[in-house]
């Protein structure tokens, strides 16, 4: 009997796609529109667990926000790039960061 | 040794204040800038548990986004209003909703 409220509500849908502690922080690393290696992401977000980073990247790829590129080199190279849809998230992040600034300043 | 990354990062700070599944949906109910009774919130967001709604409202009041007003009537009346700071969240919600629209349409 649980109704799926997300189907019709764009806010819920967005929270589903971008929600959680990490997705926006990951997308933010692609603001320069350059490929980012998996190892760089780990370095840029040092407090995310490897398991969580892998899982969040998978969801971001599934939702069409990032693309994964695996190069069969030795050692293997894995890079991610941001998609057109992913880039639409960047202004959202700016808005959120702007809102957070007042708290960072006053806290 | 766990570094508190939120202190300096406005994105993390915002996610801390607005993160989770419900806070934005709650704030959205105040878009008309009118007081909203506790019971109305429950009706507007039917899939939130009572415990979670109370907890999220408490955090929103603590962070200065909502104000709580208790009227000693019988039965007791509890209303919430949105603050100036809370109103700053409304454009963020609009941006998020706009982003979600394309997913709602195509899914």
Account of the 3D structure:
2 copies of one chain form a homodimer. With 107 residues, chain A is α+β, with helices and mostly antiparallel strands. The first copy, chain A, is built from 6 helices and 3 strands. A 3-stranded antiparallel beta sheet of chain A has the order 1-3-2. The longest helix of chain A is centred in the C-terminal third of the chain and has 17 residues, at 90-106. Chain A is globular and about 45 Å long. The relative contact order of chain A is 0.15.
Mean pLDDT level of chain A: 89
- Strand order in space, largest sheet of chain A: 1-3-2
**Beta-strand segment tally of chain A:** 3
Query: What assembly state would you assign to the polypeptide chains in this entry?
Result: homodimer
Helical content class of chain A: 40-55%
Order of helices and strands of chain A: HHEHHEEHH
Largest interface: A-B, 39 and 39 residues
Which spans of chain A of ≥5 residues are poorly predicted at pLDDT below 50?
Answer: none
Kindly estimate the percentage of residues of chain A that lie in beta strands according to DSSP: 5-15%
Report the end-to-end length of chain A measured between terminal Cα atoms: 44 Å
What radius of gyration of chain A results from the CA coordinates?
Answer: 16 Å
């Amino acid at each position: 009997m649980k109704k799926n409220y997300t189907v019709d509500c764009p806010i819920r849908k967005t929270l589903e796609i971008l929600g959680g502690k990490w997705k926006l922080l990951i997308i933010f690393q692609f603001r320069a529109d350059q490929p980012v290696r998996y190892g760089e992401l780990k370095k840029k977000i040092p407090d995310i667990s490897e398991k969580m980073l892998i899982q969040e990247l998978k969801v971001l790829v599934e939702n069409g926000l990032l693309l994964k590129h695996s190069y069969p080199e030795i050692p293997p190279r894995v890079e991610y790039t941001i998609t057109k849809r992913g880039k639409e998230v960047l202004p959202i992040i700016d808005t959120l960061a702007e809102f957070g600034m007042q708290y960072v300043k006053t806290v």
